[in-house]
Structures are given as C-alpha cells and as structure tokens.
Amino acid sequence: NLLVHHLHHKRYPTQEYLSARSHCKMGKQKKTRKFAEVKRLLNPKDIAPPKKNEKVDKEKEVRHVEKASAALFFKYNTQLGPPYQVLVDTNFINFSIKNKIDLVRGMMDCLYAECKPCITDCVMAELEKLGQKYRVALKVAKDPRFEHIPCMHKGTYADDCICQRVQQHKCYIVATCDRDLRRRIRKIPGVPIMYIQSHRYSIERLPEATIGGAPRN
What we know:
Layout: H1 2-11, H2 15-41, H3 44-47, H4 54-60, E1 72-73, E2 76-77, E3 84-88, H5 90-98, H6 103-111, E4 115-120, H7 121-130, H8 135-141, E5 147-149, H9 158-168, E6 172-175, H10 179-186, E7 193-197, E8 200-204, H11 207-212
Helix pairs in contact: 5-8, 7-8
C-alpha cells in the first residue's frame, strides 16, 4: 500500500509532497556545504611537525675559515722580493701602449728592481678574441721577456683566474687598471697592485717600493 501511495504521489504530486521533497534536498545540500567548508579550512601545513630551533642548527654548522698564508707577517708579505713577478691583465697592456710605456722598463722604473712580467693563457686568449684592433697588444704579450703561465681551468675569464692564482701563491704583484679587479684584489691580504697614474706606473700596498723611490698612490 505504501509503494502504491508513493508512486501515486510521484505521478500526481500534491503541494505538500513537493514541499517535503524540496526540504529534504535542501538539508542534503546544507550538509555537503558544511563538509566542503570544513574541508577547505583543513590545511596540510597545519598538520606539519613543528620546526626545529634555527639557533641549534646554526651552532651545529661547520664554519669554513680561510687559513692565513704562511708568507704573511701580519699584512707584510715576506715572499715578495726582487726579481718581482708581475701578473699582467688585458687592459694593463692596452693602457701601457696608449701611454707609450714599455712594460719591462716601466716596471723597473717603478720598483727600482728587476721585474718579470707574467701573462696567463686566459689573458692571451682574451687578446686573441679581441681581434685586429688589439694586434699590437698581442704582439707585446708574445715578447720573449714575458713569462707564460698555463691555466688549468675552463673558460677564458681572466679576472677570476688572476684572483684564484694570487690567493694560492702570494709571490705575485697584480698589474691592472680595471677598477672591479682592483677592488677584488684589495680584499686579498698581502697582494700589491700596480696601475697607471699620470703616464707612469704606480704601486700600492708595497711599502719597501715607496721607500726605494717608487711613486706613492
């Protein structure tokens, strides 16, 4: 009898039957909405375990401190002495040509001692890349008085090569007119810098050279 009654209402629905059905549907929708809202509120980050104290982790970290070179007596470099080995970069050769300075003679006039210009493979590669415009600089770099230092690294960026070489071996003076490279070399203790000032070579961070008569910076 109930089934017949239900089918009868389905075929010929009354107002009471329709309102009862709509009320049931609304109840179901409300429930699902509530469930969805709760689902949105839950976040996987809320369930994540608490973070460890950063202070404890920092204490456990191993600090890498660079060892001071045995060649340094405070800031004084004991490995430097005549004949001076001068690492030359690309723009130093170019500016020397523009100022009409012979590299070896100019260095000897600056330091009042025997000097040996040194040039790395990456500086030579830079000069070769610059082409015909810098053919004179390349000819100067191929001078037999220059000592050629082989490079083991990849690429031809000379600034990084010079900085690494100077950090490893404290026996060089760096000759450059590049401001960025000079700034980087100043951070390395015990490395003098040679540059061009008023059409002659000048030196900084080499006190015995200024005592001998070399121009002060």
